[in-house]
Design a protein that fits this description.
With 327 residues, the protein is an alpha/beta fold. The chain is built from 10 helices and 14 strands. A 6-stranded mixed β-sheet has the order 7-6-5-8-9-10, with helices on both faces. It has a 4-stranded antiparallel β-sheet with strand order 4-11-1-13, with no helix packed on it. Strands 3-2-12-14 form a 4-stranded antiparallel β-sheet.
Length: 327
């Protein structure tokens, strides 16, 4: 037994010497794929279809990139959608409309899509994890209630959604639908940090915003009373003083290639969702692999359509690189 112990020790020492003499390997990180959903339309607003990779030019910090293009209408990339809903007390009237919309989400996700739901007021909660089944989504929306005072941690809610989407396979389209006021209340995350993470994870954010002080006037009084507690007209008037503050929803949408729409009535909300679904499924998906870099750098993206000077192109304006060369 003692001899066997010495043999094991000798072998272990030989192994250590061999490892010390070996040259330490150097690794270079693989640059992540950058995905750029692109909407192309005419001056009159009609979608332009039938374009191929040869029709596009993408400049990354003024440098042309070799592109892979998923054509309009192929729907090869399945959609992972997180719906972020503000459920503050001041959102009571809006929630009455939002609760009626689950069936309309199918127009955004399409075949093979999946949906998760996050609510935000004074707290952020994941009330439904990703599912392809509509029954649990329907039940989740039916149970939505207004709470949490006037707090509305919109940025924190969207940040949670970005983290959820980051776990999804790279091939899926990552989309957030934010249903909230246009302004944030009490979030801990900064909008710049959130946008950086969303850009790095190829997340597109669409926002359908409402006014906490206008929406109640488009809702039947009986519906508000059925929710309990009625609506505080004094709180509504107090909100008018804050109407000119920063439009967070617009910022999130513009810097991720999405759109900000608005609603005060159920019909407006239905129109918004139809427009978002139409856009998601009429976009071209451009992707490329940027060169690895030693430190994070912001890249400006410019997308052009060759031989179509009158084409209206909308895409995300840039992204933060996260590649680093291992030392």
């Amino acid at each position: 037994m003692l001899l066997q112990g010495w043999v094991r020790l000798a072998l272990w020492l030989v192994f250590c010497v061999m490892c010390m003499g070996a040259q330490e390997p150097t690794f270079k990180t693989q640059a992540p794929l950058v995905v750029v959903p692109v909407t192309v339309s005419t001056l009159s607003g009609e979608r332009v279809w039938g374009l191929t990779a040869s029709d596009f030019e993408l400049l990354d910090n003024d440098r042309p990139q070799r592109l892979t293009v998923e054509p309009w209408g192929t729907y090869e990339s399945q959609v992972s959608l997180v719906v972020v809903i503000q459920t503050s007390s001041i959102s009571k009237a809006a929630l009455l409309k939002i609760k009626k919309m689950p069936a309309m989400l199918d127009g955004i996700t399409g075949d093979g899509g999946e949906v998760a739901v996050v609510t935000t007021d004074s707290e952020v909660k994941t009330v439904q994890n990703f599912t392809t089944r509509w029954e649990p989504i329907q039940e989740t929306f039916e149970k939505l209630t207004a709470s949490g005072g006037n707090a509305g941690r919109i940025l924190d809610g969207v940040d949670t959604a970005v983290q959820m989407l980051a776990l999804k396979p790279q091939g899926r389209r990552r989309v957030i639908l934010l249903l909230s006021e246009a302004r944030d209340r009490d979030s801990k995350v900064k909008v710049g940090d959130l946008l950086t993470r969303a850009e790095q994870q190829n997340v597109t954010i669409y926002t359908a915003s409402y006014s906490a002080y206008v929406t109640p006037f488009t809702t039947k009084a009986g519906e508000l009373q059925a929710q309990g507690g009625g609506f505080d007209i004094l709180a509504m008037l107090a909100e008018i003083a804050h109407a000119a503050q920063q439009n967070v929803g617009k910022t999130l949408a513009e810097y991720t290639g999405g759109r900000q729409l608005g609603f005060n009535t159920l019909r407006h909300l239905e129109d918004d969702l139809a427009e978002i679904g139409k856009e998601v499924h009429s976009q071209y998906q451009l992707s490329f692999v940027p060169a690895a870099e030693e430190k994070p750098v912001y890249h400006e993206i410019v997308v052009k359509i060759k031989d179509h000077a009158d084409a209206v192109v909308r895409a995300r304006p840039g992204y933060w690189s996260i590649n680093e060369l291992a030392k």
